[in-house]
User: Fold DUF1654 domain-containing protein from Pseudomonas lundensis.
Amino acid sequence: MAKKAAKAPTPPSPYELFGLRIQKEISSPKAQKAKMAVLLPQEGDNPEFWERLLEEISENDNVTVAHRDDGGVNVFWTVLEED
Assistant:
């Protein structure tokens, strides 16, 4: 029986790559310790990606997004203790 050729993985979309960059910033040890991340747009970032991502982040419970004068945002979160 002939083997089927392995299907090449689908490369991430530009939005997924953008999201991975932001996820890396939020997941950094410094941000995790402070329960806060400063997210700054980079040159070439798609403004629609920023709007979409901030909307998605804001939908989470126990998360606060504060817009900064420099165009970035501060994201704060609380971790609830389990009983």
